[in-house]
Amino acid sequence: MTLEDQHTDRKSLRTVTGKTADWDALAKDCVCFANGAGGRLLVGIEDDEALPPAGQVVPPDLLDRLRKRIGELTVNVQALPSLQRAANGGEFIELVVDRAASVASTRDGRYFLRVADTCQPVLGDDVLRLANERPGRPWEAMDSGVPRGLADTDKLAHFVQGIRSSDRVKESVKEKSADELLTHYGLAQGATLTRLGVLLLGTTADRRALGHRAAGAGDQVRRAGAKDQQVGVGRLCAVARRAGGRRLARVAGFPRELRGGRGLVPAQRAGL
To answer: What is the rounded CA–CA span in Å between residue 201 and residue 212?
Structure first.
């Protein structure tokens, strides 16, 4: 009896370590889950086994290597690895793959879909049908699950100051509270930040939780902050754009007024 299903797959640790590493196969499996309903890969547990080998130790740098290689080998895949310890003391990696907002593929243009406990190629017109099933909302506008109150207070203050000091913002907008500005510019919905809100105003840990590309944004913001203690609105917008928010102006009407002006991102440079 197989222990795998539509949402779970198991992979030997040899798949991602040593001379037997097969990164292309791992990338294909991630694409399968991303084009389906999402799922998880249990890396370090053999097929038809419930637990990893007793005493198995996962190399400490393997999680970062996983994030990097999946980002290099796939398109539109968000995968978050975490280290787990089983009851027998053996370690393994739980690689959680979110359902993709748009069609996911390998870097060389191949498409796959998880069907029951197998990974099937998607060909021809089926690719178009798969695209039509994707949600209409862009990645940046989706709920991050991070509460509004966990936004970085310093970055939020800089953002609000940038809005209120801009000569491109209407007075009626400047009068809004910080919380109302988050909603107005699509950085938050209800009680939580959107993914764009996390990229611009979230903590390093919350940006990393969005996946490899968001983690890259966090590193860039941290480096920028070390160089210039005041990370301005324009710098944050540029970082978010490079990390995946390429259509900021189309996300819930994201700041037209941030397209130009002192310290902000000129339209031609931002690609808006």
So the answer is: 17
